[in-house]
Every structure is written in C-alpha cells, then in structure tokens.
Specification:
Strand content: 5-15%
Radius of gyration: 32 Å
Strand order of the largest sheet: 1-3-2
Structural class: mainly alpha
Distance between the termini: 96 Å
C-alpha cells in the first residue's frame, strides 16, 4: 500500500479505506475504466500502478502480493496475462485521470480513471547486438578450432563466377557468329 496521507480517511478507518481501494483496483482492472470521485481516483492511482509494475515482473511472489490486494483470481489472471504485457515497454504512467463535472446529488467532483493504451516501441537494437556477439563468438571459435570458414566458400564461388562469365561470353560470341552467317 502507498504511504498514508494526512487528513481524513476515505472510509473512516484505515481498514475500510484499504478495502475500498482494493475494490476500486479490482473494478479498474476488470473494466479498464471506472467513474469515481477525484479524491478516490487520486488515492487509487499509486496502488494500481504498483500492482501493474508487480504484474510486469510476473513471478510467483508478485502474483501472491497482487492476490493480497485484489482478491478475485480471475482479475489477477487478467492483470498478469493481458494488462501487464500491454505495458511491457512503458516505464510507468499506466493510468489516466480525466476530470468530469460535479455529481448531481451532492456536487462532488467526479473523475474517470482509466488504463492508458500500450506504448508502441520497437525493440530492434537489442537483437542486433546479440546477433553480432553470436557471430563474433562463432568466428572466434572457428579460428581456434583451425577451421578457416571465410576462405573456403569464397574461393569456389569466385572461380565459379569466373567460369560462368566466360561461358556467358562464349555463348554470346556463338550467337554473334550465327547472326553474321
């Protein structure tokens, strides 16, 4: 749980506030967006983002910590298997709070808290480095083993390309002779 704030609690007691935030987090992960008061949304944001960060880790301890807050197993499954992979490239800021108008009955300021969409980032640089390292390692192993892989394929390919060029010249010369005759 986030550090408690000073001032009055949302539900009257710390235990009630903890249960209210757990229920709000469950609803947020189940539906993707919920409409609540601004104060509850601001209190929910750190808890929801911590749970998503734990879900991104994906290990058993993180799953058990999430189950301690969100007691619905289906929602925890959805959090770990659907929501967390969406945010794998995002370092934080998984929720958005949009303020709406006041509530009709008591004019309480209302807000919508929702999960933001995934961030599209290409992860191309990492595989290139790994592939370059693997190729360099394979080359060094081949040199240590006494195999000279670079010279063996290039020598026959060069001679075969020279032979192909000569045969192409011969066929072109034969065609010229036939057209002249």
């Amino acid at each position: 749980m986030p550090t408690p704030t000073k001032g009055p609690r949302l539900g009257g007691s710390p235990a009630h506030e903890k249960l209210m935030l757990a229920n709000l987090a469950t609803s947020l992960f189940k539906h993707g967006r919920i409409k609540t008061t601004e104060t509850k949304a601001k209190r929910l944001r750190p808890l929801a983002e911590q749970l998503i960060t734990k879900a991104k880790r994906g290990d058993l301890h993180a799953r058990r910590q999430a189950l301690a807050v969100v007691r619905d197993k289906d929602v925890v499954f959805q959090l770990f298997d659907q929501i967390a992979p969406r945010f794998s490239n995002r370092p934080g800021g998984y929720t958005r709070i949009v303020k709406t108008g006041p509530r009709k009955g008591d004019a309480a300021p209302m807000a919508i808290i929702e999960l933001v969409e995934e961030l599209e980032v290409a992860v191309a640089p990492a595989p290139r480095k790994a592939a370059a390292r693997k190729a360099a390692k394979a080359d060094s192993i081949a040199v240590l083993a006494g195999e000279d892989t670079d010279e063996v394929p290039t020598a026959p390919a060069a001679s075969s390309s020279d032979d192909a060029a000569e045969s192409a010249d011969d066929t072109a010369a034969d065609k010229d002779d036939e057209t002249k005759a």
